[in-house]
Amino acid sequence: MSHILTLLTFPLVAIAIWQKDDLISTNLDQTPRLHPDSLQPVAWVIHSDPKPACEVVLPTLWHQLPHHYTITSMATLNEPGPFTATRAGQSFTKGVATPDWPVFTISFFDLLDPELQETAWLDTGGHHWVNRHGHVISQSTAPLYGISSNTCSESDMLMWSKRLATLGCHFLKNNRNHSAK
Predict the structure, then answer these.
(1) Which ranges constitute the DSSP H helices of the chain?
(2) Residues in a beta bridge with 19
(3) pLDDT tens-digit readout, 94-137
(4) Using an 8 Å Cβ cutoff, are 81 and 93 in contact?
(5) CA separation (Å) from 134 to 12, 33, 38, 112, 131?
(6) Half-sphere exposure of 127 (CA within 13 A, CB side)
(7) How confident is the model at residue 87 (pLDDT cuts 50, 70, 90)?
(8) How remote is the C-alpha of 69 from its chain's centroid?
(9) N or C: which end of the chain has fewer CB within 10 A?
(10) Nearest-angstrom CA–CA distance, 23 and 34
């Protein structure tokens, strides 16, 4: 049995372990299917404030997770978000991964429903909001569809973690099969 670890550093810090076989279709030519809300991770920990202590929070959450020995790959965010949290997440992933664990990274925008990808603004700290195209606005109130630690719930984080795991598994399985040919 193999698992994928997901690490979200935006808008909250969350680590989950998902069973790979539960996440992807066997037909690699299909778009990865997103499973119903009833699918739950093997392990799940979340912390409400990633900004001040990401370097402390990540190791603490890691030690709360069981099943380290069954992890065979990882998936995390590569942008955007608060710079320190994103950088700490990338460093943590590189530090924890073994040479045998492929690591998949993706933009947070790719975790959103397609119709929201163009209208979402993400809080990058300091009253700065960025959209998918890198445009930045500065304002203290959230834009019409602003995503921040104040506007998301644990169920949002769980949904985004599941999408990250599903996309990561599909990508890694496709790459392994293509490189074997």
Answers:
(1) 54-64, 83-96, 114-117, 154-180
(2) 3
(3) 877 777 888 899 999 999 999 899 999 998 888 899 999 999 99
(4) no
(5) 21, 28, 34, 16, 5
(6) 4
(7) confident
(8) 20
(9) C
(10) 8
